[in-house]
Amino acid sequence: MKKINFMVLLFLGAVLAACAPATPSVAPTQAEPRTLRVMTHDSFAVSEAVIQAFESENNARVQILPSGDAGTTLNKAILSKGNPIADVLYGVDNTFLGRALQEDIYEVYSSPALADIPAEFRLDAQDRALPVDYGDVCPNYDVAYFEQKNLAPPRNLEDLLKPEYKSLLVVENPATSSPGLAFLLATIGHFGEDGYLDYWRALVANDVLVVSDWNNAYYTEFSAHGGIRPLVISYGSSPPVEVLFAEKPLEAAPTGVISTEGSCFRQIEFAGILKGGRERDLAEKWLDFMLSLPFQEDMPLQMFVYPVNPQAGLPEEFTRFITIPAETSEVTSDAINAKREQWIREWTEAVLR
Q1: ∠ CA(90), CA(95), CA(100), 5° rounding?
Q2: C-alpha dist (Å) from residue 322 to 140, 241, 247, 301
Q3: Which residues have a Cβ under 8 Å from the Cβ of 267 and sit 6 or more positions away?
Q4: What is the pLDDT of residues 298-330, one digit of tens each?
Q5: How much is the pTM?
Q6: 34-134+267-315 adopts what CATH topology?
Q7: How is 319-350 classified by DSSP, letter by letter?
Q8: pLDDT, tens digit, for every residue of 14-39?
Q9: Rg of the chain over CA atoms, in angstroms?
């Protein structure tokens, strides 16, 4: 009897199981994207498709935090040291690199991608600040102005002192402007510490105009944009910018670059992982990505800088009009870090007072 009851129970259980509604299968849920905070200077730009590629591959959201010019951005990073407002800092260049390293704001990260980067760009032996791009600060000139005046443009720094170029040059204050500081360093590298102040005093005698920043110099005072000064301190990459953003197609750049005999100073920009950031592993992947070909090849037409990865291809519209100096003025990052404030103070006394 017990055996029969057991078999009946088994049968009834099978019937009930077959009649019961099926339990829906539950697909595993994907983790919420993590947010990577990237602090940059205001000139940072990257294609949306490039950002999206990184986000898709890493289930991440990249939050770009523009923070002023390079010097202001670094100051913000230093003030928030230990409890940073970002995970990665991009945009410190070799004029401020020594200060960033001295303040100890970066984690060490020897990215595998550094194997492809030439040693000339790797200025931090401990791999705290990784090179990303470079460009040259040089005197620029308004081609149309000199053609209309039947006057040859200056060829070098010494020419800027000639009487025919009096009242034609506008420069940026090195205390408040990154290209202004780069040009000051170009004069120090070219004339030496014993001669650069005499050069600047001669520029003052030739009626140089000093303004606070690049935007004011280039878009207000420069004659190519409605001002009255046909010589301005800008970049070797400014001519292709003029061509690409012209209202009508241009066959030639409306601006030229003075690049001979140490007239330019090369800026190298770096990125690093900030100490105390929330997303260390994601920050490492971002630095790897910045040195990869998709990001490196995107930069020339976004920020008009050169990629440090020599394998990166360059667009024709970038290379056609850009000027690459055969030689640049050299001042080491150690010397800049040790004497930057002294040089700015001496320049201020000689030029503004």
Answers
A1: 55
A2: 12, 9, 19, 12
A3: 93, 94, 95, 134, 135, 136, 137, 178, 182
A4: 999 999 999 999 999 999 988 999 988 989 999
A5: 0.84
A6: D-Maltodextrin-Binding Protein; domain 2 (3.40.190)
A7: HTT----SS-B---HHHHHHHHHHHHHHHHHH
A8: 434 444 454 454 445 568 999 999 99
A9: 28
